[in-house]
Each structure stands twice: as structure tokens, then as C-alpha cells.
């Protein structure tokens, strides 16, 4: 049972959140001329499965309805930080942010 | 079969003034307040309490605590019957009803005890060998299985629903102390000085732990009196909460500990509104595990006979319950602590025949005290076998550990001690691996992975003085108190000289069954067989022999089993491994985990604002996610078919009214709202005029259709989107994801308004005539054409009107604030009275959309593209949108795709079945190629024929072809004709009205 420190609401139980997915994804620009199927294929289907710290998106669905970025250790379940969905991440913790 | 009373005339912590009546296997007994079922049965001379799992061996109680592997009891009757409860943990109460289990016809005469004689035919791995061998899946196997299921196993659960209440509660604290023994009390006391919240949980009804079971003196008080004084002190502090009868059973991430408080298990039944059990989810800053240790049995021949008990348990029966379990006792111990049992038995008037100690040097000062009572101490000796039967034991065979010679010694009680194994379960649950301590001959907790520390016996500290000071230190550190004013007292036993525990994993000798795991009937020969057959890793050993797989999770067997395997392989114990403990520490009921969320509280019920009206009409309901919706409104004598066909015809012939509140409604505002819609919908939105609605289609990134619905432009920067009922929540979260994570630069706000607006669909050629009487605007084609939308006042309520159609008829959808839903609905129905308006449910709603060939949930099955659904034109070529880039991948286009068509039975009357497969021919040899499937079935209310929608290879290019609907489960084959999916008004004249 994790506690996620929502930047908008403060520490909340994980029951209030929905796990959404990989927080390192970068969608190709809308309207771009990106026609390389490989880029779209990777964006849509390919996910890393790291052992250790990983940046994830969680949705505070039963709270403020904001998506937040959570750096969670997939091995120990330790949470290294939680940030708004967009903008700079002031990362003060160790470990790679893939 | 009970023997003479074993209750001592004085002593113990029971209240002899409060007599409690109870029954066991139908026989009446009495005990005292403070007894457990086990102590009360023992006091009444009943040593036989159970039959074992596999061999149906007679068993008595082995322990006095949560580790009990033998005395598993069926408690209570009827709906409250609970199997496999441990007699050692059942608090006695007046009116308690208990029964033994796993015996037929009685505990004393159990015919399946003959399993012992065929024991060598049911060795370790029996199940695997039998069920995976040549008999597997044969008739014989089925017979075997039935027999084995009957004879093996444990007690029976009730078939009735549990009538009791279970609740959940969350709590937070700075320091959580698990265990109310000496270390836990000291920890709580020291931590309390920090001022933060301290919660102390104790599994039993009393604080004190071993202090209640041993003869200790602290500050001039008996151990139990000292514990009571500590309780008074702690209970008087505002920042301390004491939870008794509460087991910490699971240690979860980020210091959350799940606890079960047995609120009413010690009552005949819970009082009104009182829960039987309460689950505490405690989130703690720091956790101190002071959960004690579990004494380990010794492995010798027939070591499972009734009245062979753990030495510490014998002391518990004497000192806490005032019961002398045996008159002529032998203590068999490989450690000093066992000698305390000899002293306490002697003090209570028992005759201790000998202390048998495999260590050559024997014990330290405690041995001197024993010898001073003229009790013989046999150093370098071990019990090789117990002699006895169902009612107890008569003698022990004692042999030197090395050398030969055997002596018989009469006895009626063997108190055994193989040393104490710290309760590492909770720390192990955090992922910390227990570490072997070779000097203590036990596993101790590994390095903490969460903010926890084990203290006292749970950390391998066994002397009382050390437990008290370790508890104090842990409590002070956890609470950040540098020097607590309270100092740990020095008990009288402090400084006692002792000798180290010596390993004796198996006593010498070969005779009798030598049980390693009493609960699962695993013997040393099973471990040896597993070794011979190569199942030597601990995890294989467990699964092959079932060692440690019982409800006790091997609390008294894992260590011995592991050590015996280690000696067989010649490896050390740490090389052999340990097992990983998982929650729960002791069994918890499903009721506790479910809590109050059962029955109608399992999920919330969403009701529309008009719910009560539908109910008053006697509609039939259907679940739509959490909503309930009227399915149809039957008239006398109507079944579902007659009702929905009538509702369809009356709507198409006149006017029908439907509650469509459950459709998802999302309010979208902001300067970039139109741009956003352009990205999430496949079709264009920028040119949509204010006051107009448009049908939209959404795809996932992979190009598969996600959802559809109508979205209306209320202002330049204000839209209201509708989604399907099923996807309302999903679409909302999906929009938020794109706005917040993918395109945070867009200035758009989305808000779910599904619950804020009640929605009424009015459909049929007379719908305009009806609504003209309700709303205040001109509804003519010129003023309010198809796909118009705007503000209205309806029956005096400000709302919104949309001219959209799902049925294909001229239709409107009226939205009003939910609080006025029923008022407006009634006004609509009243206005419709003279027009013959009919209320219709989801069956007619669905049927009309099938007649019109609109796609819905069954067609948007997560595999269909827009092109598959004949909606390819909805995919804009002028703009980018979600799903565009992958929708035209090689496999998503081409002739092999199953595309949207209509289907009709060739004979015009055969029923079509949703989910049925489509094949080319009726009787092709297997395997048959599936060329499609039936997605939705309905009834053409105008041609009076069954119809269906489906996905068929080739799609509309095959219009007019005859293919076959196959439903092999019911052996149904129906020739069907592929046709256009729009069965009614293909030109769409009606909805333009
Ligand atoms: Zn939040």
C-alpha cells in the first residue's frame, strides 16, 4: 500500500489513484510530418520494464483528477518523488530517471 | 473419555469465581474466565482434541499460542460456524460450542486412522505421483479424488452467509509497537515519552506475553502484575492507544501494517451493530516488532502423541491457566529455558521424573536449581520415542545421544523444547531475508528494508532483562527520545548463567513416526524421500512434502525441516535457505478483508434523477456499469420480447420517451477547446457552428475505434461532449491524460457533468408535437433543424435541447439540472398522454439503433477500425488526430478485415444469436474458417423479422450472399443473408423530419 505525495493534495493512499503508464513517453508532435511507422510503433507499444527507479504516470482519479509523475522503485516500491504531469521536475534523489 | 480434573486448586490468572459452560463434541464442560478452549479442555482431563490431516492420528494440544498445529477446532454452529480455529487462541465464553474435525464417527474412534497403516502408500509427493501418472483424468482418478478430498483436509465452513459485520478502520501513528510482552511494553513506555502517537497491538486479551506464563519477578511484582501496572500507566496517556485481541498479520509497503481486531469473537454473538472483527490499516512512522518467539518441537518417534507439548506451553498451562497437564513429566530440552518448566511443574506439585538434555554439559544455573529439587538431569541423552495412544502417553524411551543403551521411563507428559525461533514473519514480509544465527541456532531478522526494528525475543534476545532493555532502547529510538526518564527494571532472573542452545534436529533412533510438520503430517521419512528424489531446494521440499504449507505456515516445522534437509545434503542451514513468509501471519477471515463492502454495499448503485418514476411503473431493471436503467416497462402478460417490440412500434408510430441520463457528459471549455476536439476526434470540429451538434468518433493511438457520441457547440469556446454509458469514465480520464500530460499547452478545461444533468430522449414522428408543449422555443425545421442545439426553458426549468437521433426517428434530447429531472420527465409524460407517448427502456433503445445500423459497444469491441464499421469517411484526411498514424497499418486494411453488415435469417424467422460465428457453408469439415460473427441481435419492428448486426469478411461487398450462423454450443446453424446494416429508412428522411 503506497502513499503517493500528490503535489496538489499532499500524501494520499494509492487507493485513490489509478496507474496509467510509463512517464517517460514522449508522443510525436501532433500535426508533425512524422510518418516513420517505427516511431509510432515504439510510442504505442514498446515499454521498458526496468528493475529499480522508474518514472510513471498515475492519475489521482478519486482526488484532484490530476495526472502526476511518480518516480517509483519497481523493486522496493520506494517512491522517490512525485511531480505535476508537466513542467520541470526538481529531482533531488539519486538514481537514473530513464 | 475425559480423565480426572487437572485444574490446580490455586494459582494461575483465571477467575475461579466465574464459571463458564461450554460444549465440545456435544459434551458439556465448564471452565473459568481467563481460560482458552485448550486450557479448559485440558483442565477437564481431555487431552484428545483433534485428528491429524493425513493419517488421522490422535492429537492433543502442542502449544499455548498462535503457532498451534494440532488442536484445530470447528467453533460455533450454523451460519457462524468457523473451521480450523486454534483451541489455544479461542477465549472461553459461556455458551461456547465447539466440535472436533476430520474424524468419523467420533474423535475417539476414527475409522480413517487406518490411514496410518497404509501410510507407506501415501508418501510425500503422493498427489503428484498419482494425479500426473497413468491414472490422471481417468474414471479411477475421479473416484480417488473424491475419496481423498473427503479424508484429507480440515474443517468445514458454513454453507450459510456470514450474518456478522466486519469493519475497516485506518489509523496513523508515529510508533507502532507489535506485541504486548515485556519488550513491547518497554518499547511503548519509552516511545510514549516522545509525545507522538503510539499504538500498541497485542494478539491476546491481556498484555504481558511470556510474563503471564513464566515465573518472573520484576520490581517485587509478579510478571503479570508488573504488566498490569504498565498497562495502567500506558492507558492513562493520551498519546497511547492499546489494541488488545489484535493481531498484526501483514506488513505492507511504506510501513502499513494490517491488523485484525477480534472485537466479538469471545462473545456468543456480537451485540447489535457491533462488528465481529475490525481491520486496522495502521500507517506508522516507525514500527517496533516485539512479536516474541515460537518454541520449536523436537523430532523423535511418535512425537505427536497427545500430552507431548512444548515446554513453554506447559508453563503457560501451569502459570496462566492453573492447569497441571501431567502428574509425571519428563522435560526434554536442548536449551536452558526448558529447565524452567521442570521448576514450575515441581512448584505446582507435579512429579518431574527427569530433565533429558542432549547437551553433554547441560544447563547453567537453572540446572543447579533443578538438581536441588532432586530431579534427575540426564545430560547427553535424548528421547528416541514416546509410547502411548489416543488418550496420552505412558512412557518415554531414552537413549544416549552417542553410544548405546535404552531406558524406559514412565511418564504422562513430555515437555519438549528445541529452542526458540524468533517471530521473523513480519520483518520477512517486508522483503528482508532472515539471517541464520549459529550461536542462537535460529533465524533472526535481516537488515530492515522499511522503518522497522525487531526487539526482544523477536530479535533473538531471550533473557527477560535483555528484552526489557532492548524494548526500551527501540522505543526511545523510534520516538526520537534520547534519554527516556523511564528506565527498564531489573528482573530477579537477571544475570542468570546459562549455556548455549545446542542443535538437535532429530533425536537418535528410527522407531515410530517422527513428525516434522504436525499439521501437514510430514515426517522425517518424507523429508528423506524428497531428498532422495531430488527435491532438495527449500521451495521444492515445501511443495513436494507440503512441509510448512498448512494454516500455521510452518511456525513449528520450517526450521526442523530445513535443518534435516541441510544435514542430508551436507550443507549448512544458511546454504539450504529459508522460506519467505507472506501475509497473513495467522489466518484471517475473508469477511475481515471484505469488510463492510458486501451485499448491496459491494458497489455503489447509481440512480438517475428519474429512477423513482421508473420504479413506480414496475420496470424491469438492467445494470449498466454502476447505473441501473429501465430495461423495459412490461404490461400485463408481456415478456421482454413483447414489451420491447411494443415500445419500439409505439415510438416509431408515435412518440417514445427514454431516460438517457447515463450517457457520459463532459463539459469542455477554453480557447483551445475546438482544437482539442479536433485532436481527439477523427473528424473535424473547427467549422462546427455555435448551436450545432455533430457526431464524433474517437480512436486509440493504435488506430482502433475507442468511443463515439455527439458533441455540441454551446459557445465559441464551450462544448458539451457525450460518450457511451460504458466508456464515460474512461473517456474522461483519457481526455485528462492528453490535456495534462501530452498537450499541457492547450488551454482547455474538461469537467464531468454526467451526474449534474438529467437527460430525456423524446423520439418518434410526434416528438415535436410533444415537446412544443413543454419547451419555450420554436421547434420548426427552420428554427431548430436536425443537429441543432440550444438553451430552452422546459416546464419552467432552464435546460438544453439537442435535436439528435439514435432511433432514426425525428428526436430530441432534453437536458435539465438533475434536481429537476423527475419534474421535467413527468411534464414530458403528461404532455405526451394525449399523443400516446410510451416510456421505453434499453431493450427498445438498443433495438431501434440496431434497426438503424448504428454501431455501439458490441461493435466497438477493441478490434474494429473506423473502416471496418463503414465509418471510414469519419477519418479526416485534412488534419492530424489520435490514431491516425497507425490506423492504416498493413493488417488493419484489406479484404481480410471483418466489416460491418446487417444479417437476416433466410427463412425470415429463425432466431439469431449474439456472439455466434459466421461461416461460409453449413457443414464444412473441421477446422472451419470463421468469416465473421454476430455482434448484436434485434427485431425489425416493421417487417416483423429477426435481424442482426455483425462483422463479416468482405463486408458490404457481400451484400445478398447467403452465409451461415453457427452456434455449436447449442448445435444451431442458421443460413443468413448479408444485407445493409440500415434496416429502416435508409435515406434518413425521418430524422430530418
Ligand atoms: Zn491530487
Would you write up a description of this structure?
The complex is a heterodimer of chains A (98) and B (993). By secondary structure, chain A is mostly beta strands. Helices cover 9% and strands 34% of the residues of chain A. Chain A has a single domain (3-84), classed as Folate-binding superfamily (Folate-binding fold, 2-Layer Sandwich), CATH 3.30.2270.10. Chain A has one helix spanning 37-45; strands spanning 3-6, 10-13, 18-22, 53-59, 67-73, 79-84. Chain A has a four-stranded antiparallel sheet, with no helix packed on it. In chain A, a hairpin with a 3-residue loop joins strand 1 (3-6) and strand 2 (10-13). Mean pLDDT of chain A is 89; it is low at 93-98. Chain B is of the alpha+beta class and 993 residues long. In chain B, strands 8, 9, 12, 13, 14, 15 and 28 form a seven-stranded mixed sheet that branches. In chain B, helix 6 runs parallel beside helix 7 (338-347). The N and C termini of chain B lie far apart (91 Å). Zinc ion binds at residues 6, 8-9, 60, 63-64, 66 of chain A.
Topology:
The complex is a heterodimer of chains A (98) and B (993).
Chain A: E1 3-6, E2 10-13, E3 18-22, H1 37-45, E4 53-59, E5 67-73, E6 79-84
Antiparallel strand pairs in A: 1-2, 3-4, 4-5, 5-6
Chain B: E1 15-24, E2 27-33, H1 37-43, E3 50-51, E4 58-59, E5 72-75, E6 82-86, E7 96-99, H2 126-132, H3 139-151, E8 166-178, H4 182-192, E9 198-201, E10 217-218, E11 221-222, H5 223-235, E12 240-243, E13 246-252, E14 256-262, E15 277-289, E16 293-295, E17 308-310, H6 311-319, E18 328-333, H7 338-347, E19 351-357, H8 365-372, E20 377-379, E21 381-389, E22 392-400, E23 407-410, E24 413-417, E25 420-422, H9 425-429, E26 435-437, E27 442-444, E28 452-454, H10 464-479, E29 515-517, E30 522-523, H11 524-532, H12 538-545, H13 558-569, H14 573-576, H15 590-594, H16 611-616, E31 620-624, E32 627-632, H17 640-653, E33 656-659, E34 664-669, H18 673-680, E35 692-699, E36 705-715, E37 718-723, H19 728-742, E38 749-752, E39 757-763, H20 767-772, E40 789-794, E41 797-802, E42 811-817, H21 821-832, E43 838-839, H22 842-851, E44 898-905, E45 917-919, E46 932-940, E47 945-953, E48 962-967, E49 972-979, H23 989-992
Parallel strand pairs in B: 1-7, 8-9, 8-15, 9-12, 15-28, 17-24, 18-19, 18-24, 19-20, 33-43
Antiparallel strand pairs in B: 1-2, 3-4, 5-6, 5-7, 10-11, 13-14, 14-15, 16-25, 21-22, 22-23, 26-27, 29-30, 31-32, 33-39, 34-37, 34-38, 35-36, 36-37, 39-42, 40-41, 41-42, 44-47, 44-49, 45-46, 45-48, 46-47, 48-49
Helix pairs in contact in B: 4-5, 4-10, 6-7, 7-8, 11-12, 11-13, 17-22
The complex binds zinc ion.
Zinc ion binds at residues 6, 8-9, 60, 63-64, 66 of chain A.
Amino acid at each position: 500500500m503506497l502513499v503517493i505525495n500528490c503535489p496538489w493534495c499532499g500524501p494520499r493512499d494509492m487507493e485513490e489513484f489509478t496507474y496509467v503508464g510509463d512517464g517517460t513517453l514522449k508522443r510525436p508532435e501532433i500535426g508533425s510530418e512524422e510518418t516513420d511507422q517505427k516511431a509510432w510503433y515504439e510510442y504505442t507499444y514498446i515499454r521498458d520494464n526496468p528493475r529499480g527507479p522508474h518514472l510513471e504516470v498515475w492519475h489521482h482519479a478519486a482526488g484532484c483528477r490530476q495526472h502526476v509523475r511518480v518516480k517509483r522503485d519497481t523493486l522496493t516500491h520506494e517512491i522517490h518523488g512525485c511531480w505535476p504531469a508537466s513542467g520541470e521536475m526538481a529531482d533531488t534523489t539519486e538514481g537514473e530517471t530513464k | 473419555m475425559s480423565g480426572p480434573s487437572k485444574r490446580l486448586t490455586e494459582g494461575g490468572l483465571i477467575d475461579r469465581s466465574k464459571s463458564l459452560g461450554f460444549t465440545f463434541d456435544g459434551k458439556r464442560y465448564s471452565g473459568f474466565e481467563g481460560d482458552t478452549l485448550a486450557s479448559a479442555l485440558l483442565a477437564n482431563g481431555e487431552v484428545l482434541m483433534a485428528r491429524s490431516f493425513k493419517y488421522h492420528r490422535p492429537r492433543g494440544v502442542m502449544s499455548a499460542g498462535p503457532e498451534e498445529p494440532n488442536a484445530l477446532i470447528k467453533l460455533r454452529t450454523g451460519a457462524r460456524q468457523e473451521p480450523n480455529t486454534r483451541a489455544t487462541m479461542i477465549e472461553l465464553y459461556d455458551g461456547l460450542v465447539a466440535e472436533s474435525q476430520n474424524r468419523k464417527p467420533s474423535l475417539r474412534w476414527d475409522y480413517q486412522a487406518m490411514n496410518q497403516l497404509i501410510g507407506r502408500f501415501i508418501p510425500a509427493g503422493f498427489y503428484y505421483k498419482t494425479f500426473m501418472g497413468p491414472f490422471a483424468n481417468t474414471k479411477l482418478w475421479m473416484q480417488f479424488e473424491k475419496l481423498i478430498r473427503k479424508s484429507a483436509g480440515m474443517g468445514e465452513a458454513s454453507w450459510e452467509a456470514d450474518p456478522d459485520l466486519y469493519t475497516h478502520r485506518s489509523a496513523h501513528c508515529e510508533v507502532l509497537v507489535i506485541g504486548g510482552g515485556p519488550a513491547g511494553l518497554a518499547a511503548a513506555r519509552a516511545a510514549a515519552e516522545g509525545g507522538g502517537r503510539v499504538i500498541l497491538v497485542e494478539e491476546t486479551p491481556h498484555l504481558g506475553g511470556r510474563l503471564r506464563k513464566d515465573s518472573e519477578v520484576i520490581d517485587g511484582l509478579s510478571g503479570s502484575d508488573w504488566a498490569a501496572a504498565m498497562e495502567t500507566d500506558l492507558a492513562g496517556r493520551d498519546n497511547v492507544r492499546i489494541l488488545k485481541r489484535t493481531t498484526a498479520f501483514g506488513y505492507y509497503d511504506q510501513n502499513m501494517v494490517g491488523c485484525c481486531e477480534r472485537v466479538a469473537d469471545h462473545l456468543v454473538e456480537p451485540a447489535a451493530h457491533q462488528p465481529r472483527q475490525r481491520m486496522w490499516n495502521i500507517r506508522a512512522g516507525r514500527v517496533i516488532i516485539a512479536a516474541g518467539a515460537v518454541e520449536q518441537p523436537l523430532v523423535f518417534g511418535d512425537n505427536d502423541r497427545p500430552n507431548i507439548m512444548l515446554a513453554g506451553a506447559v508453563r503457560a498451562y501451569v502459570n496462566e491457566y492453573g492447569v497441571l497437564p501431567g502428574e509425571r513429566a519428563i522435560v526434554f530440552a536442548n536449551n536452558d529455558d526448558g529447565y524452567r518448566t521442570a521448576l514450575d511443574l515441581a512448584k505446582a506439585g507435579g512429579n518431574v521424573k527427569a530433565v533429558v538434555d542432549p547437551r553433554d554439559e547441560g544447563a547453567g544455573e537453572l540446572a543447579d536449581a533443578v538438581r536441588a529439587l532432586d530431579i534427575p538431569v540426564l545430560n547427553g541423552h535424548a528421547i528416541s520415542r514416546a509410547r502411548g495412544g489416543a488418550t496420552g502417553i505412558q512412557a518415554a524411551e531414552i537413549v544416549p545421544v552417542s553410544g548405546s543403551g535404552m531406558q524406559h521411563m514412565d511418564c504422562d507428559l513430555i515437555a519438549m523444547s528445541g529452542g526458540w525461533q524468533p517471530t521473523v514473519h513480519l520483518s520477512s514480509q517486508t522483503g528482508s531475508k532472515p539471517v541464520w544465527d549459529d550461536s542462537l541456532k535460529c533465524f533472526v531478522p535481516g537488515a530492515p528494508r522499511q522503518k522497522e526494528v525487531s526487539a526482544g525475543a523477536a530479535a533473538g534476545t531471550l533473557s527477560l532483562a535483555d528484552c526489557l532493555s532492548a524494548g526500551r532502547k527501540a522505543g526511545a529510538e523510534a520516538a526520537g527520545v534520547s534519554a527516556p526518564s523511564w528506565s527498564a527494571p531489573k528482573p530477579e532472573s537477571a544475570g542468570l548463567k546459562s549455556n548455549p542452545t545446542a542443535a538437535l534436529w532429530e533425536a537418535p533412533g528410527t522407531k515410530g513416526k517422527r513428525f516434522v510438520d504436525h499439521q501437514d503430517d510430514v515426517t522425517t521419512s518424507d523429508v528423506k524421500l524428497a531428498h532422495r528424489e531430488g527435491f532438495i531446494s527449500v521451495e521444492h521440499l515445501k511443495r513436494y512434502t507440503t512441509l510448512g504449507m498448512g494454516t500455521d505456515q510452518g511456525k513449528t516445522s520450517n526450521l526442523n525441516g530445513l535443518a534435516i534437509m541441510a544435514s542430508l545434503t551436507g550443507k549448512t542451514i544458511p546454504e539450504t535457505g529459508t522460506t519467505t513468509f507472506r501475509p497473513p501471519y495467522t489466518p484471517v477471515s475473508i469477511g475481515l478483508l471484505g469488510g463492510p463492502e458486501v451485499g448491496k454495499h459491494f458497489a455503489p448503485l447509481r440512480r438517475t434523477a428519474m429512477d423513482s418514476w421508473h420504479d413506480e411503473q414496475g420496470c424491469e431493471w438492467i445494470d449498466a456499469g454502476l447505473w441501473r436503467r429501465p430495461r423495459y416497462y412490461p404490461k400485463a402478460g408481456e415478456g421482454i420480447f413483447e414489451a420491447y417490440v411494443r415500445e419500439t412500434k409505439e415510438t416509431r408510430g408515435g412518440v417514445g420517451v427514454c431516460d438517457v441520463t447515463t450517457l457520459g457528459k463532459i463539459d469542455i471549455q477554453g480557447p483551445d477547446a475546438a482544437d482539442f476536439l479536433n485532436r481527439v476526434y477523427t473528424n473535424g470540429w473547427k467549422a462546427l457552428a455555435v448551436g450545432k451538434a455533430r457526431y464524433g468518433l474517437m480512436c486509440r493511438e493504435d488506430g482502433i475505434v475507442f468511443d463515439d457520441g455527439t458533441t455540441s457547440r454551446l459557445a465559441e469556446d464551450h462544448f458539451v461532449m457525450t460518450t457511451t454509458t460504458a466508456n464515460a469514465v474512461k473517456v474522461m480520464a483519457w481526455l485528462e491524460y492528453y490535456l495534462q500530460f501530452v498537450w499541457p499547452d492547450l488551454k482547455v478545461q474538461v469537467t464531468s457533468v454526467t451526474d449534474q444533468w438529467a437527460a430525456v430522449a423524446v423520439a418518434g414522428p410526434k416528438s415535436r408535437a410533444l415537446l412544443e408543449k413543454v419547451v419555450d422555443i420554436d421547434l420548426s425545421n427552420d428554427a431548430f433543424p436536425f443537429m441543432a442545439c440550444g438553451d430552452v426553458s422546459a416546464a419552467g426549468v432552464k435546460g438544453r435541447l439537442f435535436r439528435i437521433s439514435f432511433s432514426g426517428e425525428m428526436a430530441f434530447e432534453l437536458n435539465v439540472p438533475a434536481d429537476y429531472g423527475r419534474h421535467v420527465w413527468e411534464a414530458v409524460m403528461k404532455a405526451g398522454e394525449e399523443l400516446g407517448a410510451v416510456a421505453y427502456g434499453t431493450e427498445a433503445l438498443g433495438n431501434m439503433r440496431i434497426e438503424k445500423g448504428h454501431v455501439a459497444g458490441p461493435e466497438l469491441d477493441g478490434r474494429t477500425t473506423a473502416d471496418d464499421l463503414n465509418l471510414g469517411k469519419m477519418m479526416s484526411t485534412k488534419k492530424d488526430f489520435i490514431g491516425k498514424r497507425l490506423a492504416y497499418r498493413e493488417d488493419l486494411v484489406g479484404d481480410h478485415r471483418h466489416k460491418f453488415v446487417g444479417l437476416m435469417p433466410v427463412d425470415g424467422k429463425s432466431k439469431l444469436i449474439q456472439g455466434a460465428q459466421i461461416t461460409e457453408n453449413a457443414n464444412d469439415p473441421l477446422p472451419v474458417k470463421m468469416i465473421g460473427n454476430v455482434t448484436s441481435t434485434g427485431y425489425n419492428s416493421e417487417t416483423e423479422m429477426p435481424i442482426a448486426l455483425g462483422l463479416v469478411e468482405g463486408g458490404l461487398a457481400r451484400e445478398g450472399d447467403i452465409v451461415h450462423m453457427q452456434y455449436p454450443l447449442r448445435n444451431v446453424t442458421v443460413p443468413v443473408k448479408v444485407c445493409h446494416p440500415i434496416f429502416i429508412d435508409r435515406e434518413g428522411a425521418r430524422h430530418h423530419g
